[in-house]
What we know:
By secondary structure, the protein is an alpha+beta fold.
Amino acid sequence: MTATHAAVTGLAARIEHVGHKLYMDNFVSSPALFDNLHTKTINYCGTLRPNRMGMLKNFGHTMKLKSGVLKTKLKGNLTAIVWKDKQNTEKHVFSTMGG
């Protein structure tokens, strides 16, 4: 567990098993943290850096996307989305806030 993972888990301890939603930026987010929060009934949505440990296989900076193209991948309750914007920058979002 990284220091940022421990900090977020500690701050979120008061909202465990209540069903709250947590939004994060790519500075603290990681697949391991998202899995941990999901086991505590905390839904999340956040951007993610493509080189984080635990990133979904064949999903991220190794993909060759054209501008405006959107790709999604599902893993259990996790939805991963990657797209390339007009500035030719890839964006990555992970979420468990599905329908």
